[in-house]
Amino acid sequence: MSKKNRLLSLWTIVKIIWDTNPLFIIFSIPQIFLKSITPIILIYIPKEVLELIENGIDYDIILKKVLILGVVLLLINFMNLYLKNKIDLHSNIFVKKIKKNIGTSSMKLNLYDLEDTEMQNRIQLANKASELTNSLIYIQNIIANIITIISLSYIAISLNYIFILLIFLTLSVKIYTVIVEYKHNIKIRNKLSENSRFVEYLFNISFYNNGTAKEMRLNNLQQWYYNKNKKYRNDMVNYQLKSFKLNAFHNILTEIVLSVQSLIVLLHLADLYINGLISIADVTLYFNTILTLTICLSTITNQFCNFNAQVLNVNDYVYLKNIVYSSINENETKIENRKINIEFDNVSFAYPNTDKFVLKNINLNIYNNEKLAFVGMNGAGKTTLVKLLCKFYKPTEGTIKINNIDIWNIDNNEYYKLISAVFQDFSNFAFSIKDNIIMSEVYNEQKLYDIINKLELQEVIAKLPNGIESFLTKQFSDEGIELSGGQIQKIAIARAIYKNTQVIILDEPTSSLDPLAESEIYDKFINISNNKTAIFISHRLAISSFVDRIIVFENGEIIEDGNHDKLMNLKGKYYEMYSKQSENYN
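Request: output the structure for the sequence above.
Response:
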């Protein structure tokens, strides 16, 4: 890493910390001074005391001087402790704020970014940005040690040049070990991140996924799951073991070199003392000086290595923030007119990292308050088109417009006020039924119960021990309840209706219901969405008689467009699908 990039990274780290919690920096600055003078005082105190004793100074004077030095050290240690506590406090505050920022940023990522495995690794690594305060501590230690080294250098220079060579020999060994470990950590960094994602996934499905719990018991998957977990845990342990062995070897090597250095220094100083060239006080001063200089230089090397590792973390954090920022439209165009007209203009789409188009040249107009059904076989492109409308992905070609405005020029916060959806893979939350519907701290009680009644959930809720406050699943409450698939789906539909958007999308909304219940739901939903634009995606064609238009998809293209009677008269794909399904219901 170049000096320029390192300085830029340092500035970025300082700016992030200052913007997030400036008090951490404010308390860190005075500690630099205290850290730098403490080793110097500790070196000079033994020398001063020994010189007083050698010179036969009166005991009371020696005691007085020792007490003064002791009080100074006590004050310094007290200030250090006070600053450390403050720094630790504000470091914890910083960590929480950074993790909140990372979580917020992750939730704002476009779906196509979030689904990318490289981005998932980036998010995992960006979490280490919560350790950024360590970077400033590394820099703090580097500066403090440099001040100490400068202060003690004149003493070392007065000694034999061999001592200086010994210091740099020890330092060279330390630099070598640090560089090797740094390269090793970079090499396994992404592997550790990927492994952590797998381990977290396995942990979550074992404790927080009821569907997985059932599958594991029904199919006797306990050993299979255990082996999966064991594999990734073993991989993690192996990575950590390699790092531990490398670090242990380097620590042993460094300690051996440092011990040899100390032995040579002691032998030489002992020779000087025996020959009357220096006093015992000087022996203490010189030996502590050499040892402190060696430790300071070694510490600086370590801190630079740790700082460089943190630079990688901050780069991932900045990358994540930039991705989110680039996805936010600064124009913040708003849709003023509540009458919504949607236009797909020659839209084609291929998923990231593939050149296979799943949608080809889609041209479609959806008019205000119109009710449409998207039908077709699996993989025909129906759900993908809706994902594009929801801004989960950008079209590879063409544009999607609302009231002649490209949807990607509309602020997301404004755009998502226009659309609600229930997808095939919808997710309810392990909170109360009320929370799952309103998703807000403030709500309209009358509106909530009107929707519950229209979807015929009132009888189900009335029988529950805590009514609408009953929790779904037992994850957070012993009185949590398990509803049927159809009931759970109705709660998701109620949420979409309660949001009160101009456009509602239902992707296979009745897959858990029998045909009769399905027909009833459609009938109720059409009445509820009377003044809204509604898009239904369905394999079953019970919806056909309720909608204004039916759009038939095949192989990523629209092949038929019209109402039920028109398409039946065409005797094309829709006619074929409807005829087959009608036979099954007879």
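The CA atoms of residues 349 and 355 lie 9 Å apart.
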